[in-house]
């Protein structure tokens, strides 16, 4: 039995007869009447056990976008249900106005909707449905929490897609399909055209020039159907907070933008998420199915507090790729990378493939480097400067071993990696 606010008000009204007849018996009589009314009201209330709740949620929603949970309540009892229903969700699901008043006659059903706006990526399981059935007097209620399983999958937001149109325009220029007539560089023959001043003389096709009695040059375009493998580091360094989100979120955004761009370029994209074991894998998908598969696979990923198994990374690349490809290692460029073996692993992979290490840097470190306001700030700036120098030294060592390095703030990592992909495409290195 759960007393309601009305029961408390009625109990307070008892102060009037207690003041008119100031006796203990008057007070106890009033309390007894109120308790009796609550008991009778509880007995007359419809049983929450005879309510069958069912939840319905969309299969998935992108982080930050609004959606709703539909709760269907079926009254299987013989009494009319007057109730307050709480549609409970974890705080990260962003449930708003999740308490609903319903009146359901026997044998009928009602639907209520709870607005949701998720604040975290991943699977958000629903909690219990709590039904507080109020009696006809409104003095007391019967309450019970019932299961209604449902899980809302929150996909990565893919905010970096705003950079896609500009990169696609540059890709069209590289492929020679843009309105601007330029010589597309690459390794795959495209067409012949007349020589103009400024063309590389090495591109002159002498046989075709002899047949046409005019100087013509070959134009090239980057090869299509190349392989791109994205390896996501989901070990402990990916859990570092960069601003309001972990490093892993910036790596996911970079992977999504690169996959969208490479797919438009006609390349095949695979993805593997690794810490000490393989946590997610997307292979063999193409076109629109690829982005959907990536979003579903990346949504539930969370950083794990273990060291990255670099031997596993090398083995995964060897098992996945049988020909030269672009391998993108989305990890952290930290001094510990030397001791963890990431440097050696990247150098080993670079012997057979084109390797790019994409690392999201902490924007607060740059602020610390610039602050000289106090003595403590000077020491913090010195530590931040030393860390930056160590990272630069590691980047130099990686480049000497044939590994391209992309470092940028979390918001800039995705477009920076896309630009690196386009540079490699234009240089014919894919």
Index terms:
430 residues; alpha/beta; Immunoglobulin-like; Rossmann fold; six-stranded mixed β-sheet; five-stranded antiparallel β-sheet
Set out the fold topology.
Layout: E1 2-3, H1 5-13, H2 15-20, H3 24-44, E2 51-56, E3 60-62, E4 67-75, E5 81-87, E6 99-104, E7 109-116, E8 122-125, E9 129-134, E10 140-146, E11 151-155, H4 164-175, E12 188-194, H5 206-212, E13 216-221, E14 227-233, E15 241-242, E16 245-246, H6 247-264, E17 268-274, E18 278-282, H7 288-298, H8 310-320, E19 326-330, H9 336-340, H10 342-350, E20 354-360, H11 363-370, H12 375-400, E21 403-408, H13 410-426
Parallel strand pairs: 3-11, 14-17, 14-19, 19-20, 20-21
Antiparallel strand pairs: 1-10, 2-4, 4-7, 5-6, 5-9, 8-11, 9-10, 12-13, 15-16, 17-18
Helix pairs in contact: 4-6, 4-13, 6-7, 6-13, 8-10, 11-12
Radius of gyration: 33 Å
The tally of beta strands, per DSSP, is: 21
Quote the CATH topology of the largest domain.
Answer: Rossmann fold
Please indicate the count of domains: 3
Q: Report the top-level CATH class of the largest domain.
A: Alpha Beta
The N- and C-terminal alpha carbons lie at a distance of 71 Å
Main structural class: alpha/beta
Q: Numbering strands along the chain, what is their spatial order in the largest sheet?
A: 18-17-14-19-20-21
Task: Summarize the main sheet.
Answer: 6 strands, mixed
The poorly predicted ranges are 177-186
- Number of DSSP helical runs: 13
| The CATH architecture of the largest domain | 3-Layer(aba) Sandwich
The helical percent reads 25-40%
Q: Quick one: overall form? A: elongated
Round the mean pLDDT to the nearest integer and report it.
86
CATH homologous superfamily label of the largest domain: von Willebrand factor, type A domain
User: Beta-sheet strand percentage?
Assistant: 25-35%
């Amino acid at each position: 039995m759960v007393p309601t606010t009305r029961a408390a008000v009625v109990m307070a009204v008892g102060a009037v007869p207690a003041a008119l007849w100031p006796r203990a018996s008057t007070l106890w009589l009033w309390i007894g009447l109120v308790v009796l009314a609550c008991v009778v009201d509880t007995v007359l209330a419809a049983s929450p056990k005879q309510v069958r709740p069912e939840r319905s949620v969309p299969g998935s929603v992108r982080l930050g976008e609004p959606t709703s949970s539909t709760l269907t309540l079926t009254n299987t009892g013989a009494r009319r249900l007057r109730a307050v229903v709480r549609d409970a969700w974890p705080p990260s699901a962003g449930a708003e106005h999740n308490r609903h008043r319903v009146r359901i006659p026997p044998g009928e059903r009602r639907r209520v909707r709870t607005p949701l706006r998720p604040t975290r990526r991943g699977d958000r399981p629903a909690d219990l449905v709590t039904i507080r059935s109020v009696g006809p007097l409104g003095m007391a209620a019967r309450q019970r929490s019932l299961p209604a399983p449902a899980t809302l999958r929150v996909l990565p937001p893919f905010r970096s897609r705003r950079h896609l149109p500009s990169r696609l325009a540059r890709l069209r220029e590289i492929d020679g399909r843009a309105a601007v007539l330029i010589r597309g560089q690459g390794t795959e023959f495209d067409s012949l055209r007349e020589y103009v001043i400024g063309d590389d003389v090495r591109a002159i096709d002498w046989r075709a020039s002899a047949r046409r009695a005019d100087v013509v040059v070959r134009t090239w375009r980057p090869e299509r159907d190349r392989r791109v493998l994205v390896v996501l580091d989901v070990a402990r360094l990916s859990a570092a907070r960069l601003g309001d989100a972990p490093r892993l979120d910036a790596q996911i955004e970079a992977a999504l933008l690169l996959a969208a761009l490479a797919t438009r370029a006609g390349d095949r994209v695979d993805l593997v998420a690794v810490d000490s074991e393989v946590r997610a894998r997307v292979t063999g998908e193409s076109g629109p199915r690829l982005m959907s598969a990536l979003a579903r696979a990346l949504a539930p990923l969370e950083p794990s507090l273990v060291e990255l198994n670099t031997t596993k990374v090398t083995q995964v690349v060897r098992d996945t790729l049988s020909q030269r490809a672009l391998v993108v290692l989305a990890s952290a460029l930290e001094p510990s990378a030397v001791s963890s073996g990431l440097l050696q692993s990247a150098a080993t992979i670079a012997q057979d493939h084109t390797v790019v290490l994409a690392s999201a840097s902490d924007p607060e470190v740059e602020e610390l480097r610039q602050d000289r306001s106090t003595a403590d700030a000077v020491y913090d700036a010195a530590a931040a400067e030393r860390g930056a120098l160590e990272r630069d030294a590691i980047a130099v060592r990686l480049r000497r071993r044939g590994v391209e390095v992309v470092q940028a703030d979390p918001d800039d990592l995705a477009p920076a990696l896309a630009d690196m992909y386009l540079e490699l495409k234009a240089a014919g290195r894919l």
